[in-house]
Amino acid sequence: MSERIEADYLIETAYALDAAAEAMAGEQSSGTFVPVPGETPELKARAAAVVERIEDLGPVAAASLPGAGKPDGAHRLAQVTLSWPLANTGPSLPNLMATVAGNLFELKFFSGIRLLDIRLPDAFASTYAGPAFGVAGTRRLSGVEGRPLIGTIVKPSVGFTPDETADLVRTLCDAGIDFIKDDELQADGPSCPFADRAQAVMHVVNDHAERTGKKVMYAFNLTGEVEEMRERHDLVRDLGGTCVMASLNGVGLVGMTALRRHAELPIHAHRNGWGALSRHPLLGFSYVAWSKFWRLAGADHMHVNGIANKFCEPDESVIASARSCLTPMFEDKPCVAMPVFSSGQSAKQAPATWAALGSTDLIFAAGGGIMGHPQGPAAGVASLREAWEAAMSGAALEDYARSRPALAAAIGARA
Amino acid sequence: MSERIEADYLIETAYALDAAAEAMAGEQSSGTFVPVPGETPELKARAAAVVERIEDLGPVAAASLPGAGKPDGAHRLAQVTLSWPLANTGPSLPNLMATVAGNLFELKFFSGIRLLDIRLPDAFASTYAGPAFGVAGTRRLSGVEGRPLIGTIVKPSVGFTPDETADLVRTLCDAGIDFIKDDELQADGPSCPFADRAQAVMHVVNDHAERTGKKVMYAFNLTGEVEEMRERHDLVRDLGGTCVMASLNGVGLVGMTALRRHAELPIHAHRNGWGALSRHPLLGFSYVAWSKFWRLAGADHMHVNGIANKFCEPDESVIASARSCLTPMFEDKPCVAMPVFSSGQSAKQAPATWAALGSTDLIFAAGGGIMGHPQGPAAGVASLREAWEAAMSGAALEDYARSRPALAAAIGARA
């Protein structure tokens, strides 16, 4: 990798493509709208962003976003790649954000602008820790090999007391679950204080582990200020817990890096709020670009939604996200994060997920698919494991379900 | 203020308005898509979000965002207010973010969803510091009373060495400037290390202060990891500096709070990246809502763009943002932040800015309007002061410019 930072964008503009691309490059480096004396050729050679590539993707019918300078002009789509010298920012994630995803979203040149991908010099890999556990560490701590971790979320999302949470965890442990996470709405609310919940839950998890040898991985949502996160992490570690969770858009890059530098447990990264950054296809970020910031900062697990999910994201976008999490960022520091499939997931989605991803290195989290299974939570967990066995062996779910009542009930077939 | 958190949203939906509002409330509190045993009436009474108000704003022609569940249905706009018990999250900004601006952006119920405003219980005011300096502290440190601070940005944005930056600062100090800021692209890049720049710049600022009695406020961009920001802050303070700056979307809420808890200087908050969160009018955040998070976290100065700016934002949005920064958030902790007008600002915008805002409690920052003034930077600064004198006295710029050559040149009139 060179000493330049590269970023790919999807743009929509009524201006000439080269002029629009140069406007981006100028705004995000040494360019000035009004020429100033200091903007010398030497300075430009040192600091200017370079337009590396422009690919014209053809005309569009109308402007996608308001505020463009030529709203009635003929708009075109294009993919543009810019590069910057590393010397402008150094290997700093918060400053990289200002450089590749700063003021440019507000430029009048564009009626659409979205960051698609970033490629970073190795200096970033030596500055940031990346995930400490990733796939291998998560498998080691959870004792699950050769298949996805079967997971679930504490539901209702918020409102349980610590003891009620622990009661649900007992049910889930008895059902054979591999992974449980707090909801992102529950961190340290007065109705369910973090410390009380951690103690109550870990009592159950540890008791189950002593009896069965299986330590269920519970991701405790420690989202909070830096010192709060550190204290909560230490409590979980001291109680024998094996995972912590943080809301990325709440803690921010600097909060995430501070957590990672302190953490001795895997960090389960929740993307709530992601829709604001991504839902318009011509604004904000692709997950591929955005998740690279968090993977480098240290996320071990990254939420990617799920196939046939309850939200608005198409399946191909979900799979692209999951694939990118499993694709190395640097040769010597892959920063591979375990993708977390969730949102309306059940046994039915296992074959399509396996077919599209070709990997079992994921957490497959279901809520209603487990707690709502007609034969109870143990059958819910069993149905998910069986669905993945079927998928991995190439058997049709209906065939595999013939001798497996839990799977049969989950897919509405006859066992 | 009650013990409930309130949030207002603009929504667009093809579903019944009450069903859509209930879906938001459910997703962001104790609701579950598949009913689970624990969702009892007692738990709902304790934790459920409540739909407080729905105002139907009428039909729209077509769906604004993709991914909605009924793309071909008849879509309506509405304003919806939800409330949550404080006991769900406690007074925690990162967890508030997950609650009021979390998964709901991805709900299929909506073809448009934007957070318009938030109202918080007093517990937030006692937990977070808010701005330590605000308007009064900024005026005290800069010695500017009764008019806006006249400011500028180091341009070119990035590429200057520390000595070249200091040379420009000398020119600007001699020109009579009140306030200078680093560009958001320049924090601690190898080509212009923070410590070297701070030393070179403060040498000039201190020398100018000794000679003239005027200490120019320079906002040093210390955006970085928590420890880096603390070290850089301490260096600026030790050198006699009076302001630091951070990129909000780079450092995040937790980084900002960590900086504020350490800081002894005003924090100049840069909003670069804001366009990704706001540019589509039916997605993301209004500035009024978003800025409240940062004001409470401790921002003393908040960027609001400017009238007739070079970006895509309409003037009425700019003024609404600035007004909100000057509107108290809590009775005992107003969290008033000084709005920073910038982007293509010159003498010409002073009258409209004064007329719309009715306050001089702002930083009025111009780049080309100062360095590009035909009579030089001192005339550029003078023209901005004169334009504000004219505006505040009710004189037309052209009349006021008759005896003032700097202003005359700035507005293209004859002195």
Account of the protein in words:
Two copies of one chain form a homodimer. Chain A is α/β, with parallel strands linked by helices and 415 residues long. The first copy, chain A, folds into two domains: 4-127, RuBisCO large subunit, N-terminal domain (Alpha-Beta Plaits); 134-412, Ribulose bisphosphate carboxylase, large subunit, C-terminal domain (TIM Barrel, Alpha-Beta Barrel). Chain A is 41% helix and 19% strand. Chain A has 18 helices and 13 strands. In chain A, strands 5-6-7-8-9-11-12-13 form an eight-stranded parallel beta barrel, surrounded by seven helices. The interface between A and B is large, with 99 and 100 residues.
Low-confidence stretches of chain A: none
Structural class of chain A: alpha/beta
The beta-strand count of chain A equals 13
Number of helices of chain A: 18
Give the N-terminus to C-terminus distance of chain A in angstroms. Answer: 54 Å
Number of domains of chain A: 2
Summarize, please.
By secondary structure, chain A is of the alpha/beta class. Helices cover 41% and strands 19% of the residues of chain A.
